[in-house]
Amino acid sequence: MNSLIILGSTGSIGAQALDVAEKLSLKVEALTANSDAKKLEEQARKFKPRLAALADEKAAAELKIKLADTNTKVLSGIEGVTECAAFGENPTVLNSIVGMAGLRPTLAAAKAGRRIALANKESLVAGGKLVKTAVKENNAELLPVDSEHSAIFQSIQGCKDKKEIKKIILTASGGPFFGKKRHELKSVTLQDALKHPNWSMGAKITVDSATMFNKGLELIEAVWLFDVAPENIEIVVHRESIVHSLVEFADNSVIAQLGLPDMRIPIQYAITYPNRFESPVGSLNLAQIGKLTFFEPDYETFKCINICRDAINRGGLYPAAANAANEEANELFRKGKIPFLAIGDIIEEALLDIENKEEYRLEDVEEISDAARERVRRLSEKYTL
Ligand code: NAD
Ligand code: MG
Question: Most CB atoms within 10 A, among 9, 28, 99, 251?
Answer without folding.
Answer: 9
